[in-house]
């Protein structure tokens, strides 16, 4: 079983990097897609858009990531919540990598997910706001990701873990991480 860890936090001393390190203890043979260290450009540029409708790409990292994902059984996404949503680099990953004829096909305007070989997806987020606030007052950004975006790609077994108040207590963060690492 291949586990892939996807991350895109630019600050290497962030709690996201602590989470990544802990998960690498649990999954030592996991493949890590680190969008920042890879130099991934999340912007959809003219060259990307010219090929988009064909399910093709201009960015060579897209092909690398698609190859990794095509062999992935378990996908774990580690990301901060900034301004009540995922950072641009993660959103850009979905925009540029999850292309037609790779992540989905389209029949009569309906999307048919193609990544059904990924049996489990885990989304781990961190931020200042607690999960309840994100769900009730901030438009539940991960709800849309789980119920629409990932589902349209064929990813059905999706779990979400969120650590709010991430700047308050390092001890609380470590306690939370120990619990989540066992569940992931």
UniProtKB/TrEMBL annotation:
Family stated for the protein in its record: Belongs to the NAD(P)H dehydrogenase (quinone) family.
Listed Pfam families: Flavodoxin_2
SUPFAM superfamilies named in the record: Flavoproteins
Protein name: NAD(P)H-dependent oxidoreductase
Gene3D superfamilies given in the database record: 3.40.50.360
Domain Flavodoxin-like fold: start-end pairs: 1-171
Keywords annotated in UniProt: Oxidoreductase
Species per Swiss-Prot/TrEMBL record: Pseudolactococcus paracarnosus
InterPro entries the record matches: Flavodoxin_fold, Flavoprotein-like_sf, NAD(P)H_dehydrogenase_qn
């Amino acid at each position: 079983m291949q586990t892939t860890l996807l991350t895109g936090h630019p600050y290497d001393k962030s709690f996201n990097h602590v989470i990544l390190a802990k998960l690498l203890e649990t999954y030592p043979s996991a493949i890590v897609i680190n969008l920042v260290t890879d130099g991934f450009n999340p912007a959809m540029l003219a060259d990307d858009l010219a090929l988009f409708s064909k399910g093709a790409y201009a960015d060579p990292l897209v092909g690398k990531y698609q190859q990794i994902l095509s062999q992935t059984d378990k996908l774990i996404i580690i990301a901060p919540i900034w301004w009540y949503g995922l950072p641009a680099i993660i959103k850009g990953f979905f925009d540029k990598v999850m292309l037609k004829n790779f992540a989905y096909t389209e029949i009569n305007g309906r999307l048919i997910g193609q990544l059904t070989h990924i049996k489990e997806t885990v989304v781990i987020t961190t931020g200042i706001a607690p999960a309840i606030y994100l769900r009730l007052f901030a438009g539940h950004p991960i709800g849309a990701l789980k119920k629409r975006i990932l589902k349209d790609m064929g990813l059905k077994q999706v779990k979400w873990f969120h650590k709010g108040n991430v700047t308050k207590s390092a001890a609380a963060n470590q306690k939370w991480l120990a619990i989540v690492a066992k569940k992931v």
